[in-house]
Amino acid sequence: MRVWVSSFVFKREFSMSLFISELYKSLTSSKLFLVIAILLIVKLLIVYTDFHSTKSFTDEIYSYYMNELSGPINEEKRTYISNERKYILETLNSYDSMSDAYANEEISLDEYRAYLSDYNYAFSHDEIFKQIESHVSYIDKMANEGKEAWFVYDTGWQKLLTRGFDWSLYALVLILCSNVFAAEYNTRTSAEGFHQILRTTKHGRNKTFYQKVGTVVVLSLIFSLSWTAIDFIAVLMTYEHPQVNAPIWSIEIFSDIEYNINIRQFAALSAFVKLHSYIVLAILTTSFSLMFKKSSSTIICITMLTLIPRILSTLGISALNRIDYVDAMEATPILLRSIEGVVFFIIVTICSLYGIFKSKRKWS
Question: Whole-angstrom distance between the N-terminal and C-terminal Cα of the chain?
């Protein structure tokens, strides 16, 4: 019994020490720590540039109306909207008559100042209120399609869910993973690469391979979570995120979503897709690192596979939208593609697993 326990503990300790060793090697090879620091600073500067300013005056008005009407529509809210529009129109249309009345001394200076205050309110709220009225029409349109939409102040949600392609995280994952196996081939011991010696050791084939793959998965997950958290904190500090239980259809850009989920569920799904896409990117890059044996060749190939479709589709070759991996890394675009997006998501996941299978055979 003691022998079995000792053997079990030894194996676990060896496995953990091997994992930590690979983790340390990944973080310190090719001055990666400096690269991480630089890309983190770049990320923070981008976020600061995007969110350092306070909300605009128009968004403050939009926020006021949406929070005032927050929730499902009802007759009371329709009446409020109708009365507000009536007040704005009457105030704006009275400008000439009130100016003439003041000029003819038919009203006092205080009365005229009170009117100008009302006029400034009506003038500044007019265009924004048209968005509220448009959203009423949108809610009715969704209802006719069997979808429920609410009044939701969605500026913060849109900022969070449509952050776009994060090239700093993309670059970090590529640089991190492209050297995982390439380093073993490029480290020379006499006439051969270190991989020749490593694979002859007891744990140099299977365990080392899986520990390397596990390392890039863990690191990619950590960095993806960190980069996502930076975005989330920045948006959270700048904007409100009300009505987390409102249907996702409440945000107009998600009107084509086919599944009935709320905003919180969609945000969680979006985060999952983004994290998963970077893990898949990490696995593919690691596999190519073993196949090409050079980090530069790996980066060029992965960049072509993942970025060229987006570039060409932007230039007008719309057919390539179907294989645009940037959509997956942005998360929301792939979710807007519904079933087609799910199929694409599954295919790239299978491709990454197949890449691991092929590279495992090559390493062994």
Answer: 34
Q: Extract the runs of DSSP E, i.e. beta strands, from 139-215.
A: 188-189, 192-193
| DSSP-assigned letters across all residues of 105-157 | TSS-HHHHHHHHHHHHHHHHHHHHHHHHHHHHHHHHHHHHTT----B---HHH
Find the angle CA(21)-CA(24)-CA(30) to the nearest 5 degrees.
125
* DSSP for residue 54: P
Q: Distance between CA atoms of 27 and 243, rounded to whole angstroms?
A: 41
Give the Cα separation of 202 and 197 in Å (integer).
11
pLDDT tens digits for range 129-162: 999 999 999 999 999 999 999 999 999 899 889 8
Query: In this predicted model, what pLDDT tens digit does every residue of 88-105 receive, in sequence order?
Result: 999 999 999 999 998 888
DSSP for residue 192: E
What are 270's two structure tokens?
Answer: 């979006």
Supply φ then ψ for residue 91, to 5 degrees: -65, -45
**Residue corresponding to tokens 């009423």:** 136
Between residues 44 and 354, which one has the greater pLDDT? 44
